[in-house]
Write a structure and sequence with these properties.
Blueprint: H1 10-18, H2 27-37, H3 46-56, H4 64-74
Length: about 80
């Protein structure tokens, strides 16, 4: 399996650090554990997110900031 580099904000890294089960646990393990804890039927697909956004904003121009706010609102609150 190939290893990749991903970018995350510092606050995201701090959240991942807080939920590590032990100090040397890899971020890969932390992320997998988080995804496994969420039932897949609760995660909206991108298509569902775009459809909901379209339904909400039919005929309106939407700023990038509003799109970001909408995508955050569609995330599962923990």
């Amino acid at each position: 399996m190939n290893i990749t580099t991903i970018q995350v904000y510092e606050d995201t890294k701090k959240m991942l650090d807080k939920i590590k089960q032990y100090p040397r646990e890899s971020y890969d393990n932390v992320i997998k554990r988080v995804f496994q804890s969420i039932p897949s039927k609760q995660l909206p697909t991108m298509e569902e997110m775009f459809k909901r956004g379209d339904d909400i904003h039919k005929g309106k121009k939407v700023s990038t900031q509003k799109v970001v706010e909408l995508s955050h609102a569609l995330r599962i609150k923990r």
